[in-house]
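Hello again, I could really use a second opinion on something today. Take your time with it, there's no hurry, and the full record follows here:

___
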Amino acid sequence: MKLHGTMGINSRGHLEIGGCDTVDLAREFGTPLYVVDEEHFRANCRSYYRAFTEKYGAEVLYAAKTLLTLAICRMVEEEGLAMDVVSGGELYTAIKARFPMSRVYFHGNNKSREELHLALEARVSRFMVDNLYELELLNQLAREMRTRAGVILRLTPGVEAHTHEYIKTGQIDSKFGLVIENGQAMAAVKEALALDHINLHGFHCHIGSQIFELDSYAHAARVMMDFVSRVYRETGWICSELNLGGGLGIYYAPGDQPRPVEDYAAVIMGAVRESALERGLPVPRVMVEPGRSISGPAGTTLYTVGAVKEIPGVRKYVAVDGGMGDNPRPALYQSRYEACVANKAAMEPAEVVSIAGKCCESGDMLIWDIALPRVEPGDVLAVSCTGAYNYTMSMNYNRLPRPAMVLVRDGRADVIVQRETYADLLRNDVIPERLRPGRLLNVAASR
């Protein structure tokens, strides 16, 4: 397994993260356990801040959907990044963490009236408006609340990134955004400029996720600047803000070749500036929305090995105490991960096994055919690069409680998400009066 951030192998031959022995973490906090490397998370934030903000004056918005807790909000704020949220729940988390609302941008393709009201009340910086229905509803609510809403229109540029079908978003046939090619985007611009409680600031696009080819970003930037120029020619309005989304790929397994953040910034900023110069337009303020490339490599999930089952001549299955409940990505996207046996991290591989989860689904497989030291019940398995879209997509299938999360640094581990209990699973369950025990007896007697 490739080591990331502060990972290392200590004198006991165990995997260590943030100065903490992962075997000790598993014993103290139980498994499955999400481990976040604080130093690595902050370093990733700083890489973006230096590459975009310090060098070009661009704004970096952390994509909260990848990993969001109160503690994560605090770290993002301290590192000088803004934040994009995509739901009332994410916005509420930011509010409770006292994240500055002047640095919050509200995404989502179907924001409810209640969510928009909450965001207006909180005074978020911008609404990333996805469609005309939302634009009109937002204008209506802003009028009722005697305020104005800052808006950036999400557009569909018609750029297809080379990634999994389920995480492509820039193509014309997408549930996201207003299409440039068929005139929807221009109509939305004219509508926004005419509405009395909308302040239009700019445009947004996002072409997909887990992208390694930087040319895709340059192409998207040029397409967006073409549209900025057309809007100026038709309306006289000048776009002051251009948000080019996120999606930079990270290393999960052999074959993944992530590009340096500095290269990503140079490509995007170069394309925007050149396009503006060619068209005689001022350079808009650029924004980007990294998420996975900040949180992903900073996260590791620890599991305890249970049953080991060998089918002679076929495969050896190693079952762990988690799976698709805490990491649904392999089942959804055929995502690949690396792993090591944390208590045997210094040992050479001795066998090829497949890591199975404990959910009652044949598709609950975390890793197929991985070479590891001989695996035994009770071993601790560490799966790397699980910081993005693991906790945030976790679920209670089979009534499995969600794992705890700890933040590690300098040999200290702090719980930032408590482990769910069986009682938590029942917290919202209600038995109606007609189904209570005494009532059931009466119904049975009447039959």
Summary: Confidence is low (pLDDT under 50) at residues 163-170. The domain at 7-36+305-426 is CATH 2.40.37.10 (Lyase, Ornithine Decarboxylase; Chain A, domain 1). DSSP finds 13 helices and 21 strands in the chain. The CA atoms of residues 143 and 197 lie 6 Å apart.
